[in-house]
Fold this protein.
Amino acid sequence: MTDSYVYSAVRTPFGKLNGIYAGVRPDDLAVAALKGVLDKVPVFDSAAIDDVVWGSANGAGEENRNVARMAVLLAGLPTSIPGTTINRLCGSSLDAIMSASRMVETGDADVVIAGGVESMTRAPWVLPKPSRAFPTSDTTAVSTTLGWRLINKRMPKEWTVSLGECNEQLSAHFSISRQRQDSFAVRSHRLADAAWASGFYDDLVVSVDGVVRARDESIRPDTTIDKLAALPTVFRPDGTITAGNASPLNDGASALIIGSTAASTILGQDPLARIAGRGINALEPQMFGFAPVVAAERALRKAGIGWDDVSAVELNEAFAAQSIACADAWRIDPDIINTRGGAIAIGHPLGASGGRLVGTLAHVLREQNRRWGVAAICIGVGQALAMVLENPQAKQ
């Protein structure tokens, strides 16, 4: 067994629903990330790519028919490069990175491109196929943008409530107040805006052909507690969750180069981070937001470290409520979480978010000269993934 490393990471700016990427197909977004990450290794011969592993949560629209392979072909890469697409909903691109790292560690590959894409704007409406020819009854078109669709009637109703209702239940269970959630959301916007202003994202973000955009479209630097407090709740009249303390609907893509120790010579550069541990967890679907707690602890055990060793955490902010619940359970310093902003501000294009987390974490560890970090993401229908990164150049 060999070690696996992150050698490079990029993402597109994340666009909001019906925003800058409304006219851009998801496979073209994938191409932008794929070409962007390869531009980071100009001496590398792309024909040496062993595989491309891509995440996408929808799969019902223009990204169908294996978007990984489609991106390879559309990017003009050699037709000899294979590709496969993974769907673990919000965790799809983190799952792709994990799969790539396993390929490297077992010796099946030296260089794998892993990433993900989502266009929630262009997610199609679908119709259930009729059980017989020429039905006379009406049918309902179902949006595939987010959440359950075409639900099996045998599925328990408590498992198929909306993602927002799941987090209302979670916030009630852990007594997480509306004010605390709104404060968390304001912090996300403030830190994301500051990170862009400081130039942190300059080397991490690549443009999409035909789209002029300098930064993520959902960031609202003027957001305040008072403004968020004025928003109505969405899922319960007496609830706590609003459009302001939950992640928005977004479009975007991310990509990373995952390689072996030998890949340093092949790529012509040293790695950013070592993939030191992986963790997965599942529980009741309605508690999905809390699933990262155990996933991260399993990843830490695999890495042979504990929370006291961790200096940076990238936790996907699907909802402020679940992010707070996870941070409380880990009993860590909240100031080390999402120091460059999180999904509430930056956005959450489902299949691309895991790649954003890992890429951001690797760069935070390098910038701060810190050794250990954790990336974690909750996943609808009651799952979560987590990964531990080690900065090989860190002194502490």
Remarks:
- The CA atoms of residues 67 and 209 lie 18 Å apart.
- The chain has a mean pLDDT of 97.
- DSSP finds eleven helices and twelve strands in the chain.
